[in-house]
Design a protein that fits this description.
This protein is of the alpha+beta class. 20% of the residues lie in helices and 27% in strands. The protein has three domains: 31-94, Immunoglobulin-like; 100-177, Immunoglobulin-like (Sandwich), CATH 2.60.40.1080; 231-303, Up-down Bundle (Methane Monooxygenase Hydroxylase, Chain G, domain 1). The chain has helices at 2-24, 231-239, 250-261, 269-276, 293-302, and strands at 31-35, 39-41, 51-54, 60-63, 66-69, 73-80, 86-94, 100-103, 107-111, 115-117, 120-123, 132-136, 142-144, 149-152, 156-164, 169-177. It has a four-stranded mixed beta sheet, with no helix packed on it. Strand 4 and strand 5 form a beta hairpin.
Length: 305
């Protein structure tokens, strides 16, 4: 009887040990989705003397149960006991992608034939997959190479965009001017043609766009606030084919047009009524008369006529 009891206790002890070993090999996670650079610790319960192994160290490594994501791909982490029992965890690693791009400038001016460089920085700085591409909205005006070098081709405005392969992008507006033109800083608009209390801009010849004005919203130079105009195109617009000015107030009208875009409220009833008839004009009594560099430069051109 005593021998039977001892045998029974031995069997129960063996079962308990085997049961405990089985539970110890059950990993707390069997599936992991990580980003490059992430680390996660796997637990195998109370089991001791565990051997850890990765099926692909290039994707994920493991040491003491700590898994470190190395590169995009899949790997299987295996925990083993001396008895031969094993438990596994499937690991999927994804690249750490760019979430934001910032350019060294959001707006620049370059002369035709000249080259400048735009620099791009990205976030996070430790992104594991970095593939940036550059493109120009109009290669007839400005081109850009794969390193962000922008070359002016012809007068006008183009948008340079830097984009990551996961769709994140940033842009810079490039104004290309003639190499013979002075910069905006070198040419300031004469104070006599700026709307002030002492000087009132002249009124258009008619409250309706006349034959010498373009049909696009009644504007003489629709892009004079965003593009450096050339002397030749301004002269051609003013003198037309006849060689004589199409209007004695053409230059002043072009100046008025720039201020009107900002909502300048003209004191002259005839000028005010003319611009109030334009769909693009929105009066702004709070406008302080400030102009951007392009507008200052173009007003300098208009003041010659």
């Amino acid at each position: 009887m005593k021998r039977f009891i001892l045998l029974l206790l031995g069997c129960l002890t063996a079962c308990i040990i085997l049961s405990g070993c089985h539970d110890a090999l059950k990993l707390d996670q069997t599936q992991l989705e990580l980003t490059v650079g992430d680390s996660v610790e796997l637990s195998a319960g109370k089991a001791t003397r565990i051997s850890w192994e990765s099926s692909n160290d290039a994707v994920a490594t493991v040491s003491g149960g700590t898994v470190i994501a190395k590169s995009a791909g899949t790997a299987v982490i295996t925990a083993s006991l001396e008895s031969g029992e094993k438990a596994t965890c499937n690991v999927t690693v994804s690249d750490k992608l760019i979430t934001e791009i910032t350019l060294s400038a959001t707006g620049v001016r370059v002369e035709a034939g000249k080259t400048i460089q735009l620099e791009a920085t990205y976030h996070p700085a430790d992104a594991s997959h970095v593939a940036l591409s550059w493109e120009s909205s109009d290669t007839n005006i400005a081109t850009v190479n794969e390193e962000g070098y922008v070359t002016g081709v012809y007068e006008g405005v183009a948008t340079i965009t830097c984009k990551s392969d996961n769709g994140i992008e940033a842009s810079c507006t490039v104004n290309v001017g003639s190499a013979a033109q002075p910069t905006a800083a070198q040419t300031q608009p004469p104070t006599t043609i700026k709307p002030t209390e002492a000087v009132e801009p002249s009124a258009p010849k008619s409250t309706e766009p006349s034959a010498d004005k373009p049909s696009s919203g009644g504007e003489l130079f629709p892009d004079s606030s965003i593009r450096y105009l050339s002397t030749d195109e301004v002269a051609a617009r003013i003198y037309g084919m006849s060689g004589t000015p199409v209007s004695s107030s053409f230059g002043q009208d072009a100046v008025n047009e720039i201020y009107a875009r900002h909502g300048y409220v003209f004191r002259s009833p005839s000028i005010r009524s003319y611009y109030e008839a334009q769909s693009w004009y929105h009066p702004d009594p709070g406008y302080d008369g400030s102009l951007n560099g392009i507008e200052q430069y173009n007003i300098g051109l208009f003041s010659r006529y």
